[in-house]
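In the previous chapter we treated chains in isolation. Here, by contrast, the input contains two separate entities that must be folded as one system, with a combined length of 305 residues.
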Amino acid sequence: MRIKILPVAFALAMATGCTSGTDKTAGHKPDPVSEAAGTPAGNVTEQARVVVIEQMKFVPDTITVKKGDTILFVNKDIVPHDVTGVDQHWASGTLAPGSSWRFVPRQDGDYFCSIHVVMKGRITVH
Amino acid sequence: MKATTVLKWRGVALMGTLFFAINSFGQSTPKLTDPEIASVAVTANQIDVDYAGIAQRKSADAAILNFAKTMKTDHLGVIDMATKLVKKLKVTPKTNSVTKSLLEGAKKTKATLNGKSGKAFNTAYMDNEVAYHQAVIDAVEKVLIPQAQNAELKALLVQVLPALKAHLEHAKMVQKALK
């Protein structure tokens, strides 16, 4: 089932910062929601897709994005979570309640929460 | 020998669950006030934190250590939320018959867990985690949420349920992998 996804705008400078560096994560350290998902500042040229983490689920649990798109994972749950690729090549690190993490996927992949291993999701990149 | 040990433990776990069930959720379902519900909630979470601490000391299994770490983090988080809420509501948690039965059951379970080691401990810990989370979920759904009067206390209990259910599924997954 495809679930409607809310678009969230980002400042270009913040978004490009996600993909810099040579580490395996292609992500960004966890940010407070207010910073990452807040009101856009400056030139808004990129849209992010949002996956909300709430009630011990990734919502939506499957998401399709275009190559280069940013996915914003927002932890709205009462406990810490993380977002970890099943191949273990990328991971968000612990996301405390109220924090978020931006990720630019380079390829299709399944992911899970390594803290609560029953929580799973999938990313498809076109 | 191994089968006997497992069966013996399962008997203890089941007794613990039944003890909890009969005293708390059977035909004589206790009527709890909000201060008593707060006490039960904090106690039930603290007991699982204590079980996790035992597992962290006694187990070398990576999946169990990860599970125990999660239990400690999540249940301490819920205790913190409950503590902040009762302060806000100016409610003092009140010890009651359910709190006491929980603590009595936990005392026996801790003694059993502390008396085991290696694979026998791993099996006993995970069997207990499955039984305990199922019992707590039943308690929250059938007793605590229906009886909570304060809307914020009720909302907190509702908010905690998905985590408890995810813990149960996680526990079943680890339990299954041990067999």
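The CA atoms of residues 29 and 120 of chain A lie 21 Å apart. Chain A touches chain B through 14 residues (CB under 8 Å). Compare these points with the single-chain example from earlier in the chapter.
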